[in-house]
Amino acid sequence: MIYLDYQATTPLAPEVFDAMVPWLRDRFANPHSTHRPGREAAASVELARERVAALMPTGGRVVFTSGATEALNIAIWGAARYARATDPRRVRILTAETEHAAVRDTVLALGAEGFEPVLLPVGRDGLVDPDVAAGQLDGRCAMLAVMLVNNEIGVVQPVEALARMAHEVGALFLCDAVQGYGRVTQPPSADMIAVSAHKIHGPKGIGALWLRDRLDLPALIAGGGQEGGLRSGTLSPALCVGMGEAARLMTDHHEEDVIHVEALWRRARSLFADWTLNGSAEARYHGNLNLRRDGVDGARLMSDCREVAFSLGSACASGSGRPSHVLRALGLSDREARSSIRLGFGRDTTMTEIEHAADIIERAAVAQLVTPKG
Predict the structure, then answer these.
(1) Residue 70 has pLDDT above 90, yes or no
(2) Residue 221 confidence (pLDDT) above 90
(3) Which of 77, 167, 226, 370 is a good FRET partner for 84, with 20 to 30 A between their CA atoms?
(4) Angle at Cα 109 formed by Cα 105 and Cα 113, nearest 5°?
(5) Any idea which fold 2-9+253-370 has?
(6) pLDDT value at 22 more than 60
(7) Which residues are catalytic?
(8) Contact 175/194 with Cβ under 8 angstroms?
(9) Nearest to 169 by CA among 133, 125, 200, 216
């Protein structure tokens, strides 16, 4: 099986597995206990926290969560309530139409609490126009949330410019950096950044929320007051260590990862020359290749190419039967959206795998065009 679904999850790095094993098997103490084994576990958590923070802007703190979805919910609900408590006029919550469901659906859910969700449109390139955002930003805005790298089409949003614009009207800025953490520079002006371990060759079940210093959000859930009172619940030292090790590897392997992904991108683009790229060709992360071809049924293509693991878009929305909201936001028709596929590759992908996968997919696509279904 050739794995080309890096946006859904990445292979667990062997070094991460090895680092986690002692904390799963032998060193089982609760990191919130005050005895020596507990203090040792707590020390491992703090080292992991430092490693995760090393890829973040300066002047903030890292809070461990169960994943990016929880981190984003803490940030969105917390920031909205914090802003309204500070200034009752601040009820408008802005985000992009193409955000991941963890942001988009959460922002829309705020409407039930009296907030005013606003979905910003994107252009054909998938990017938010700063001028359009500026037209919606005013003194009633509590927060602007825009992701760094889109999980479906890989475009890199102008998040730093958008963060500064939000601050000009006194609003907070949240960045979903799940797909870009360790790969693309984090926006230094962000107030909140959410990341996930399993997108950087770490374990599933853990993520983190970075908060700018002196930003104190209300907790989403009550409990034991762990993580500075913001996120109650017993931490897993094994998961924290795994995420910390994955972050360290992203730092240590950054340059070679960039070179490798760039080579894979160039080769893949040449092999899929007859396909159309979805989203900007310039402002994007090159480990994500979202393509479409007229007359091809993406779902049927996946069924015909069982030797290759790729996707039609977000894993979280797979099986819904609905065209991707991201592709529709670009202005694609239902037919164009359904003719699109997403290929994701990275550190462990070989050039041979890219070439073999392209041959399999191209043959299946041509077969569809020659003998359409029905």
Answers:
(1) yes
(2) no
(3) 226
(4) 160
(5) Aspartate Aminotransferase, domain 1 (3.90.1150)
(6) yes
(7) 316
(8) yes
(9) 133
Q: How far apart are CA 284 and CA 374, in angstroms?
A: 37
Assign domain 16-251 one CATH number from 3.40.640.10, 3.40.50.2300, 3.40.430.10, 3.10.20.30. 3.40.640.10
Dist. CA 148–CA 238, nearest whole Å: 28
Sequence-distant (≥ 6) Cβ neighbours of residue 194 within 8 angstroms: 68, 71, 72, 75, 174, 175, 176, 177, 178, 207, 208, 209, 210
pLDDT at 374: 54
| Residue entry with tokens 């870009």 | 180
DSSP-derived secondary structure for 188-202: TT-SEEEEEGGGTT-
Is 298 within 8 Å of 291 (Cβ atoms)? Answer: no
Positions of E strands within the chain: 2-3, 60-65, 92-96, 116-120, 141-145, 172-176, 192-196, 207-212, 276-277, 288-292, 308-309, 340-344
Token pair of 322 as six digits: 């609905």
Tell me the two tokens of residue 351: 């050039």
User: Positive or negative, the Cα torsion across 314, 96, 258, 66?
Assistant: negative
pLDDT one-digit tens code per residue, 161-186: 999 999 999 999 999 999 999 999 99
Tokens of 25: 């098997």
